[in-house]
Amino acid sequence: MSRTQSSAHILLIEDDPWLAKSYEATLSEVAPLIIVSSSVQAVESIDAELPSLIIADVMLEHGLVIDLLHELQSYSDTSSITTVLCTSLADRFSLRELSRYGVVKILDKATITPDLLRQVAREYA
Amino acid sequence: MGAQQLNEGVIATEVPSVLAAAHELKSPLVLIRQLALQLEESPDSVSLERIKLTAERSLRLVESLTRSSRLDDALFECEPVSINALYTDVAHELYPLATALGQAIDVAMPSKNLIVVGNQTLLRSVLLGLCDNALSHNDANQPVVLSARRSGQMVNAEVRDHGPSSQSLAYIKRSMGRRPTPLSGRPRSSGLGLLIANQFAEYMQAELTLIRHRSGGATFGLSIPESGQLSLLGRLS
User: Fold this and answer.
1) Phi and psi (nearest 5°) for B101?
2) Closest to A33 (Cα-Cα) out of A41, A117, B44, A25
3) What is the pTM of this model?
4) Distance set, CA B72 to CA B14, B69, B121, B201, B208 (Å)
5) pLDDT tens track for B188-216
6) What value, to the nearest 5°, has the Cα angle with vertex B182 and ends B142 and B225?
7) Which residues in chain B have Cβ-Cβ distances shorter than 8 Å to A23?
8) What's the pLDDT tens digit per position in B174-186?
9) Which ipTM value was assigned to this complex?
10) Per-residue burial over B110-140, b = 16 or more CB atoms within 10 Å of its CB, e = otherwise
11) Residue A39 forms contact with B (CB below 8 Å)
12) Quick one: DSSP state of residue B209?
């Protein structure tokens, strides 16, 4: 499938609509933002236009986002997308192990602040 | 029929663990904290309302956990309970949450009052939990539906949500060579609420059931004994 080249937008994958809305206020200051709530929607969004950065929750409605990241590694154009995980289970994941899925940082939802989120988005978007 | 019955092994039956409780309570606390941080940056009444509703959601879970640990104390006597009245109560309590989520709850009751034998507090807790769970997974374009029907000597009290269809799930799972995740395995939740609901159901000699719909979403049901004497009076009235 042909995809449009990266448009320097951030793709936020978060299935809690209120949390997503809260992150939106911060992230939209950094770059255009697309919010989706599932891996299926994420695939559709990525197929339409490649994001420059994915910020994703790990536990989604019907599965782990790792499945999606694994899938993205299968295509040359999506395998280079930078990904930041934002999860309540940060201590259960190893950045070293997840780096093969393009994950560059794991943020802990329990300690993240708008400033930190803004800073990370600016660094990687 | 377009539905798949999933009872055996779908709803966990273990005792709620501290780890499961901690996991389940962490998400709303994270949300409350995030909303509070947002309020610091830019005060708004919507965030305040969401903090209140999220706290109330967590409190309902904590109350259920407390009751779960007190079941052995035999504090919850079974008596005739009106399902119609209970549904009205549940829909009323969850109306602010449903509205804030942009959703609706429809109560589709039979015209005759359905009376079951159960404990009012535990029944209310189970139905609130099932309805809250449905709101979490429901597609906002369709309402969560509370309904009840007789089935022999039992009453099936059901909560229907309209989540993503299994076809759309299969689309991405198939591309990854994996099977769709079972409903009970919704990773976002530890399933603690359903586990507690199942405990309460067993205490009342009722059964928690689950039907997954091919068109999307699920129906959680509570099959509970009908109160024979009072239902007969209801039919005669």
Assistant:
1) -85, 0
2) A25
3) 0.81
4) 15, 7, 15, 14, 20
5) 555 788 889 999 999 999 999 988 888 88
6) 70
7) 34
8) 444 444 344 444 4
9) 0.88
10) eeebbbbbbbbebbbbbbbbbbbbbbbbbee
11) yes
12) E
